[in-house]
Recover the amino acids of this structure.
């Protein structure tokens, strides 16, 4: 069974198959895309800056995270995206199922386009359940300082993995993990979790083993663990859910 190993710039070797690498970062994102700058509390400042400058200067800006979960004969599951290898932040590691920035002048609903652009599905926006806003600040040496307010949404989709059409320019693979085992793993009770993977480039499906080194680092806020706990609460029918 293949293992997912970290593929961020500090990693030199991986046994995990990847989608075809693209030759320019601009294929995965436009460094000249304009973002509205906000305060740490989400208030607009009136300033607009280029994506590259925002990530260089550490300005607060807005994005969305959409987490897809579901239920089948094997039990509940959670989908992660393995970020494209040409992303300017955290390439090649696991993160939210679909995610993207709000361009200048956009509202959160406008950014739902990322679901279709990255995953090849177009759900009714009314099906998305808003869970809250995550305050996220991280650094990726040597020059990236990323400070985001991430509006978090859940979307239930019980379809099999091959129902998705991940865009290989943006997404390297989709990884589906069983929720119960993922809770044990993210809670620190087991060192790894097994699941299945859909490669974006050739739509090949393979079994996969995931370790903690496979994710965008979230040691301080344990974001992925909190997401899995919240999804478990939604499936239980809990009325009050947050991340």
């Amino acid at each position: 069974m293949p293992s997912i190993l970290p593929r961020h710039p500090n990693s030199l070797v991986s046994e995990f198959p990847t989608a075809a690498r693209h030759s320019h970062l601009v294929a995965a994102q436009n460094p000249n895309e304009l973002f509205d700058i906000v305060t740490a509390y989400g208030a607009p400042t009136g300033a607009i800056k280029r994506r590259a400058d925002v990530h260089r200067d550490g300005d607060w800006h807005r994005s969305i995270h959409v987490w897809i979960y579901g239920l089948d004969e094997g039990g509940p599951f959670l989908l992660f995206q393995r970020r494209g290898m040409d992303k300017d932040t955290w390439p090649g590691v696991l993160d939210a199922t679909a995610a993207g920035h709000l361009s200048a002048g956009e509202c959160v609903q406008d950014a739902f386009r990322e679901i279709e652009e990255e995953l090849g599905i177009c759900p009714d926006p009314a099906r998305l359940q808003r869970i809250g806003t995550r305050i996220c600040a991280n650094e990726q040496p040597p020059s990236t300082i990323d400070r985001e307010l991430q509006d978090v949404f859940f979307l239930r989709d019980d379809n099999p993995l091959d129902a998705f059409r991940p865009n290989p320019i943006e997404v390297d693979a989709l990884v589906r993990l069983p929720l119960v085992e993922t809770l044990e793993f993210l809670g620190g009770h087991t060192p790894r979790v097994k699941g299945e993977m859909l490669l974006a480039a050739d739509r090949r499906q393979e079994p996969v083993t995931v370790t903690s080194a496979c994710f965008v680092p979230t040691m301080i806020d344990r974001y992925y663990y909190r997401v899995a706990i919240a999804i478990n609460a939604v499936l239980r029918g809990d009325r009050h859910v947050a991340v």
The radius of gyration is 17 Å. The first strand starts at residue 34 and ends at 38. The chain has one domain: 28-236.
